[in-house]
């Protein structure tokens, strides 16, 4: 019996004819172990594709989570809702509901709201009435002068002077920060969906009866259907009257109002008093 020489070793195949050609499959290629997996290039590609699919799914899931987080933060990150030109009206509160029994103001010829008071303005100003639209406002009293009556159904455009308390839950950090919040909210509440352009004339710290305060005087420009006035002076004075709350003096005088009304508003502000 004869074995074939492969050039490096003797084959496992044997023959009794040394002239016979070696069997197919090469010179003594050793048999593969039973059950040993065969290498398949397509299998490697399938494995790589599976990993890419997993990575893609993870990235997509993270993107969805980030989108929802930003959407829910909305405004904290500067993303504004699309309803109306003044989106602040959707996030700023209306007047704060009080469970306290209101105390009748003293009959001293002054208008009292929150911890502030000013000398009551005479004609053409109205008698003091309650105002429930001031953001964060409570115990708010206002005097008004009608400038454009019934410019739309059941609505008149007025000049106004008011005082009241501001309650903001955890409280404003300072009169300055409070003034910025309130100004933005007022622009949303009092001007409906009209675009309002703000141009500050005064924005500074001040004192009222020894209390820290912040004064903003700004001109607000707008174009409201059926309204002749295209702008007005707004005066916002925030006074730190208590540890847990502040008080506000606010005046708005339309551009087409009698200039004397501006003088009246400034006189009331100059005579503000912090009540105990």
Automatic annotation (TrEMBL):
<feature type="compositionally biased region" description="Polar residues">
    <location>
        <begin position="79"/>
        <end position="101"/>
    </location>
</feature>
<keyword id="KW-0812">Transmembrane</keyword>
<feature type="transmembrane region" description="Helical">
    <location>
        <begin position="51"/>
        <end position="70"/>
    </location>
</feature>
<protein>
    <recommendedName>
        <fullName>DUF2510 domain-containing protein</fullName>
    </recommendedName>
</protein>
<feature type="region of interest" description="Disordered">
    <location>
        <begin position="78"/>
        <end position="108"/>
    </location>
</feature>
<feature type="region of interest" description="Disordered">
    <location>
        <begin position="15"/>
        <end position="44"/>
    </location>
</feature>
<keyword id="KW-1133">Transmembrane helix</keyword>
<keyword id="KW-0472">Membrane</keyword>
